[in-house]
Amino acid sequence: MKKETTNSLLNVINTPADLRQLAPDQLPQVCDELRQDIIKELSTNPGHFAASLGVVELTVALHHVFNTPYDRIVWDVGHQAYGHKILTGRRDRFSTNRKLGGIRPFPSPEESEYDTFSCGHASNSISAALGMAVAARQKGEPDRHVVAVIGDGSMGGGLAFEGLNNVSSTPNNLLIILNDNDMAIDRSVGGMKQYLFNLTTSNRYNQLRFKISRLLFKMGILNEERRKALIRLGNSLKSLVAQQQNIFEGMNIRYFGPIDGHDVKNIARILRDIKDMEGPKVLHLHTTKGKGFEPAEKYPGIWHAPGRFDPKSGKRIVASSKGLPPLFQDVFGHTLVELAELNPRIVGVTPAMPSGCSMCFMMEKMPDRAFDVGIAEGHAVTFSGGMAKDGMQPFCNIYSSFMQRAYDNVIHDVALQKLPVVFCLDRAGLVGEDGPTHHGMFDLAYMRPIPNLTISSPMDEQELRRLMYTAQLPDKGPFVIRYPRGRGVLVDWMCPLEEIPVGKGRKLKEGNSLAVITIGPIGNIAAKAIARAEAEDDELSIAHYDLRFIKPLDEELLHEVGRKFKYILTVEDGVITGGMGSAVMEFMNDHDYKPEIRRIGIPDKFIEHGTVAQLYHLCGMDEEGILEKLKSPVMVGAGE
C-alpha cells in the first residue's frame, strides 16, 4: 500500500488553469497526490471508488491539454469523475459528496460549468458530445474542442453505437476516448469486451501518418474526400497487419491505440498531437479499475462502491447485519433460484447488474440459465421477449430508473404480444445518495398506462416471494414487480410459495373514520403513523389497505372504500403525478364516489441526493410526514 503523500502540487490547483501552468514532468506527481486524495476522502465518505482511481491519469492529462471549460469534456457514467470534480474547484467541498445539500454524486451542469452534460446513465456521451461538436461548427467556434470519455462497459450500450454511426457521417472534429478497463460494475461481457482487449495498432505508424497527412494537406494534394478514403484504407491495412478487424474501419473515424492509460505524460503528448486533427478520432486507452489501491485492483467489482474502509490496511468497514432483515435484492436472488429449481422454463436476465440485483446467485448455481447482457436495457427486455415467445419464462431484473431506457421495448416487444416476461424493478422509489438520475420515481406512473401489464409492489419480503411465484404461473402474461433498495422488515422472511390472486389487495386494519391506501414497503411506515395518530387522538379510527396491485386495481376493495369513507389518504414511494393516488382518484371519479382524497408521494420535481431517511422527510413521506397529514384539519374532521 502506498503511503499518503504531501499534496504540494494539488494544494495549488484550484482550477484546471492552474494545472496547465505545470510542466509535463510534474503531472505524475499530481496524479499520485490526486489518487491519494480520492482514497483518503472516500475511506470516510463512501462513494464510487474504483472507477475514479482508474482514470486519474486520463483526467489530469485532459485538463492539462484542453482549455476547459471552454473545451468540452463529456463523461460517460459519472462514477469515473471524482478526480475531475477535485481538479475543477470542488476539492474543498468534496467531503460533502453525496450528502444532502453537498456535491452531487455525478457531474451536473447545475453544479459546475466544467460538468458539460448529465451522465448518471451509461452510453450517452458520444451522442451528447457530437451534438456539442456540431453546435460549435454551427456557431463558428472552430477552436472549441469536444471530448467524449466513454468506458466502464458503456461502449456495449446501443446508444453508443447509434452515436458512432452518426459521428461517421456528420462533419465534426470529435475526440472519443475509450477507457477500456474490461469492467462495467461487474466484469464486462460480450464480443465488444473481447474485441477491445485484442485490438492492436502502432503508435509510431499513427504519428508518421499524421505528419505526412498534414504535409499533403499543405501541398494541396489531399482533400477531405481523399482523406476519408485514406482513413478507410489505412484502417484496413492496420487490420491486415494486426490480423484483427478494426470496428472503426469504414466509418471514417481515425483510431489511435491502444496505449497505457496510466502513463500520464504519454497520454498528454498524444492528446496534444491529435487534438487539432480534422475529423472524428478514437483514442483507445487500457486502464486498470482501482489503479493504485491494491485491494481495488484485485477485486474491482467489490470496490466499485465499497463503503467505508481503512486506507492503510485496505480493510472494508462493514457493519454487522446479524439479526437484521435481508436486502430485498437478496430475497429476489434466493427466491429466483428456488423457483428455477421448480420450473425448468425460468431464466434470468440482467443488464450488467448481476451482483447489484443478486442474480449472481442464479449465475453461480445455474450459469447456463442466467444471462448478463451488458449495459443494454432495451436489449435485455427484447431478448427476454424473444425467449418468452418460444416457451421460456424470463425474469428480467432492471433497476427502476434504468428501465426508463427500455420503455418502447416493454410496449412493443412484450406487452403488445402479451409475452410472459416478469420485470423485477429493483431500486424502486427514492434510492438515496445516488440522486435524481437513479431515483426510481416514475415506474408506477409510466407503466400504468400500458395495456396487458400486471403491476405490483410487495409490502414486505414474504409478499415479494409470493408475487414472484405468482408471476411465473401459467397465463399470467407480462408481470411487473417493483421493490426498493435496502432492507425489508422481516428477519424471518422465508415462507411457503403461494399464489396471490392477481389484482387483489389486503385490508390490514379495520377503521371507521378514514382510509389509508398504500402500495409497497412504504405501507410499513404508514402503519406506524396510523398507530401513533390513533394513540394521540382516541376519536380517530383509521382503516389501512395494502393495494398490492396498481394494475389491475382491486375494484372490490376500492368500492368498499368509496362507499364507506369520506376521507382517503394515499401513500406511495413514487411520483404523485400519475401514480397510485391518481389511479385511486380516477376510480372514485369514474364510479361517482366523492371522498376527500389527499395524496402523499414524491412531488412533481427532481429530488436531489441524501440519505433515504432525509429524502423521505423532505417529501413528507416519513412517519412524521404521514402523521402530520393524518392529523391535518381535514382528516381530524373525519373523526367528528
UniProtKB/TrEMBL annotation:
Binding annotation for Mg(2+): D152, N181
UniProt enzyme class: transferase
Protein name as it appears in the record: 1-deoxy-D-xylulose-5-phosphate synthase
Pathway(s): Metabolic intermediate biosynthesis; 1-deoxy-D-xylulose 5-phosphate biosynthesis; 1-deoxy-D-xylulose 5-phosphate from D-glyceraldehyde 3-phosphate and pyruvate: step 1/1
Pfam families per the UniProt record, alphabetical: DXP_synthase_N, Transket_pyr, Transketolase_C
Catalytic activity: D-glyceraldehyde 3-phosphate + pyruvate + H(+) = 1-deoxy-D-xylulose 5-phosphate + CO2
GO function terms (MF aspect): 1-deoxy-D-xylulose-5-phosphate synthase activity; magnesium ion binding; thiamine pyrophosphate binding
Entries under Gene3D superfamilies matching the protein: 3.40.50.920, 3.40.50.970
Keyword Magnesium: yes
Manner of cofactor binding, per the entry note: Binds 1 Mg(2+) ion per subunit.
Any single biological process term in GO: thiamine biosynthetic process
Keywords: Isoprene biosynthesis, Magnesium, Metal-binding, Thiamine biosynthesis, Thiamine pyrophosphate, Transferase
PANTHER family, sorted: 1-D-DEOXYXYLULOSE 5-PHOSPHATE SYNTHASE-RELATED, 1-DEOXY-D-XYLULOSE-5-PHOSPHATE SYNTHASE, CHLOROPLASTIC
Required cofactor(s): Mg(2+); thiamine diphosphate
Span of domain Transketolase-like pyrimidine-binding: 326-491
EC number: 2.2.1.7
Record: residues binding thiamine diphosphate: H79, G120, H121, A122, G153, S154, N181, F293, E377
Function: Catalyzes the acyloin condensation reaction between C atoms 2 and 3 of pyruvate and glyceraldehyde 3-phosphate to yield 1-deoxy-D-xylulose-5-phosphate (DXP).
Entry similarity comment: Belongs to the transketolase family. DXPS subfamily.
Any one of the GO CC terms: cytosol
